[in-house]
Description:
mainly alpha
Amino acid sequence: MIIREKPSWFRMLFVWRGSVLPKLLPRLLGLFVFTSVVVYFRNDLDRYHGELSTNIYTLFGIALAIFLGFRNTVSYDRFWEGRKLWGALLNDTRSLAQQVHNFIPNDEIHTKEKIAFIRQMAAMTYALNHQLRNTEAMPDMYKMLPSELAEKLEGAEYKPVILMRELGTQINQWRERGTIDTILQAAMDSNLGKFSDIIGGCERIASTPIPFSYEVLLHRTVYIYCFLLPLGFANSLGWYAPFIITFIAYTFTALEAIADELEDPFGNMQNDLALDAMSANIERSIAEIEDVHIENKKNTDSFFIT
Length: 306
């Protein structure tokens, strides 16, 4: 994800990185060439079909704009829900880390257990990151966890859930040894339950895309509409048509492309959520609460522009 200061209105016209224009440029150039050919042969084409009524384009254009608006709203809702889930993950990991810091003694044995607990929470965050992006999690797991625990995760499909189970096991051990009472155990278990809700919410977004038939219908309609525009406006616009129609097509196709990017907020596109940066932020935040050093530094330069 690209986060940057908003440039001036003039510089905004030429922003390249983070825009969908690079992806659309070959298609728009194709439409520009097609429109130029239609304008050049417009007199010959009129003999076969005549000029199409602009009322048709108005009706279809209004309907298409409404559908694109709905499509973008649905996609942004998915993006924003994903962001809220990761914001809740930050808050809940901080809450549990604060409980561990405040209520678990600081003797040698308990201090080691607290450090291991914090590391497991951070590892759970990275494991969720990798699960949502279908990337290999084990290199990070071996960096952040004891080899014995990391080996338990080999072959596991839902690594964050396994790590959440280990966190619950540690809390139960503290209760059995009398380190915490049942009330505090219930409070810690409540935070673990929130982790489960967050993981499930992220999995629901990642595994439930917008129905493919709906995407196909909208995609076909956008491109057929754009490539029919020259047949209706070649005569009235003349050699202005390639420029005006290409700009109109950019508006429609860019809206569709943005919706495609936002539909899966956990992907690796430039406008998707910066999961690596958010994972690193959660790691640093909970590590500072217990003053834990975690050997897992991430380079987030590719996600942020300063």
